[in-house]
Amino acid sequence: QVALVESGGGLVQAGGSLRLSCVASGRTLSEYAMAWFRQAPGKDREFLAGVTWSNRTYYADSNKGRFTTSRDYAKNTLYLRMNSLKPEDTALYSCAATGPTSLLYSGSFNSYDYPYWGPGTQVTVSS
Hints:
single chain; globular; mainly beta
C-alpha cells in the first residue's frame, strides 16, 4: 500500500505561482494512476489534474493552461505546477492514487475512484 504526503503549499499573492509535491512511500508511483484534487471550505472536492500509468496527463477544463502535473519516477514524486493563481484557488490540495485496476490506463475525474490519499497541503492566495 502506498502512502502519500504533499508539500509546497503556502501563502502567495494573486498572479503568483506554486509547485506542490506529493511524495510516495511504500510503493512506487509507477504502479499507480495519480491525480490532484482540492477542496475549499464549504465546497465539494474538485478534480484538478491526473496522470495515467502510461504518463498521459489530463486536466479539468477550469484550470487547463494554468496547472501542469508531472511525475519524477526517480524521486517517486508527483508534482503540480500552478501559475497565475487567483484568490478562488485557495483550498486544501491533495494528491491521490489508484490501482491496480483498469483505471491505471483510463484515469478518472472522480475522487471515489482513488483509495489512497495524502493529508493535503493548504494553498492560500491573497488578493
